[in-house]
Amino acid sequence: MAGRLEGKVAVITGAGSGIGAATATLFCREGAKIVAVDISGKQAEVATRLGPNCIPFHADVSEGKEVQAMLEKAVSAFGRLDILYNNASILGRMRRSGEYSEEDFDEVWAVNGRSGFLGIRYAIPIMLKYGGGSIISTSSMAAVVAFKKEIAYCAAKAAVCMMTKVAAVEYAAQGIRVNAILPGAIKTGMTDGIDQLALKVVGQATPMGRMAEASEVANLALFLASDESSFITGSTILVDGGYTSI
Ligand SMILES: NC(=O)c1ccc[n+]([C@@H]2O[C@H](COP(=O)([O-])OP(=O)(O)OC[C@H]3O[C@@H](n4cnc5c(N)ncnc54)[C@H](O)[C@@H]3O)[C@@H](O)[C@H]2O)c1
Fold first, then answer.
1. What is the residue extent of each domain of the chain?
2. DSSP E strand boundaries for the chain
3. Are 75 and 11 spatial neighbours (Cβ–Cβ below 8 Å)?
4. What is the pLDDT of residues 97-154, one digit of tens each?
5. Buried-most residue among 20, 44, 69, 200 (CB within 10 A)?
6. Nearest CA to ligand 1 atom 31
7. Residue 111, ligand 1, Cβ within 6 A
8. CB of 185 sitting under 6 A from ligand 1
9. Dihedral angle at the C-alpha atoms of 25, 113, 66, 236, nearest 10 degrees?
10. Complete DSSP assignment for 85-99
11. CATH assignment of 9-245?
């Protein structure tokens, strides 16, 4: 049976770890060819594990030239670009708003907000050449619920949702769909790095009573990347175990 992404070419950022690595694995299993992008170097291990249909690529997603280069790699290596998953981000330093430094704000905005714009900006002209595509961005439930000490992260994730909607309405008629995923608490490298007690509280406050596996987010990315979601664009979809419904 053909895979759900058979014949499609995807660029996935933050593919060295967590949700990005889980998505690269799933997309490959479903027949896609992938450029696995990260700044950490871990994209090489993922590509080695996944085989010749996955190419590792080093890029900083906050830099326009590097974003262009990663997208061009999909075309030069695999002949087209159908899917961009803008997923890389950082949590940034945790400080209350009255103590948050300008430098920390700028860094989080560059990696989490500006990168969303850059991905959209440079993927669209390429996708138009190949008749359309699907752009997915990982936002967060932090786009709709305030988390203390994360002013830059929450603001950037909210901006990703609005950029998603603007690009979606602009290019809907030309076959490019643009959607965002808003995860709740997921077990990844990002959550390994934060206060485990605070995380336990978030897990317990989630109606499902647990954190999610990265694969539970990757499953939605697969649906949004595939033609099964052909009438879905401009959507911001929560994967939060009910957290924001309380
Ligand atoms: N884990 C959670 O609970 C959670 C919740 C909501 C949203 N998210 C979002 O999910 C996405 C994936 O995060 P994750 O949880 O898998 O974390 P992760 O830390 O495991 O993965 C993030 C990856 O992004 C890469 N990265 C960081 N800065 C980069 C840059 N400038 N250029 C290229 N790559 C860069 C890192 O090296 C890392 O491999 C992020 O957008 C994150 O904000 C995560």
1. 9-245
2. 9-13, 33-38, 54-58, 83-86, 133-138, 176-183, 186-187, 212-213, 236-239
3. no
4. 999 999 999 999 999 999 999 999 999 999 999 999 999 999 999 999 999 999 999 9
5. 20
6. 60
7. yes
8. yes
9. 40
10. EE--------B-GGG
11. 3.40.50.720
